[in-house]
Amino acid sequence: MALPAGIHALPQTVEQGEQSTAVHPAAVETGDGVLLVDTGFPGQSGQLESALADAGFDWEAVTGVILTHQDGDHAGSLATVVEKTDATVYAHERCVPYVDGRKDQIKSPDCERYPPAEVAVELVDGVTFRTVAGPMEVLFTPGHTPGHISLYFPAESFLLAGDALTATDGRLRGPSERYSLEMDEALDSAQALADRDIDQVLCYHGGLVADGDDHIARLLDGLR
User: Fold this and answer.
1) 152 - beta bridge partners?
2) Are 136 and 80 contacting, i.e. CB atoms less than 8 angstroms apart?
3) Pairing of β 166-168 and β 171-173
4) pLDDT tens-digit series, residues 157-199
5) Is there a contact between 104 and 67 (Cβ–Cβ < 8 Å)?
6) What is the pLDDT of residues 102-126, one digit of tens each?
7) Which residues form a coiled coil (predicted)?
8) Contact call for residues 168 and 219 (beta carbons, < 8 A)
9) Cα–Cα–Cα angle for 16, 77, 80, rounded to 5 degrees
10) Domains located in the chain, CATH noted
11) CA nearest neighbour of 135 among 113, 153, 160, 156
């Protein structure tokens, strides 16, 4: 399976006790540089830099960061990335106060939060970016968190799902019931994705899933 031209997975692996957790930030090429989609756990900018290099880029190529949402495994290294790149940060308007530190983190409030960072541009549903892979549309997919977004590439029938969908052993799954704050809303968001023409999905937790037995519409039709 190959990602569409101009889109790159930037996998990270983090040791948590006796377990390893793999996550999948991404890089999207534009005419003005590279947009990172999420930054991974706190302290993982080194892995991000190595993955960027494997894709043929360095920090100087990064002009922006889009957060799918504010959780620490997605925004944990944001402040470090901004320090290294001076990138413009984009996030949904409902995420911004959690990212910039005005509000305490929603999940694990007793844990030390990641360093806050300023968000320059507040996103809303339907905003579109021009990329090498064609238009990239912001889809508001709340439920996992209040301001969760996914990113859709209609010309490539491709979705960067964030945590709106997950995958296990190469098979597409619905949103995580354990980690979604409002599961009914998360399921509504997932079901709305079935109306899109999607042949490939990069899930932040689980990686790349292609069309076949796990086609997104067939999966989502059975979620309710």
Assistant:
1) 137, 159
2) no
3) antiparallel
4) 999 999 999 999 888 899 999 999 999 999 999 989 988 999 9
5) no
6) 999 888 766 788 999 999 999 999 9
7) none
8) no
9) 140
10) 7-221 (3.60.15.10)
11) 153
- Token digits of residue 206: 């689980």
Measuring CA to CA, which residue among 35, 26, 16, 186 is closest to residue 108?
A: 16
Q: Which amino acid is at 69?
A: H
- Which residue carries 């996550």 as its tokens? 23
The residue among 123, 148, 133 whose CA lies nearest residue 30 is 133
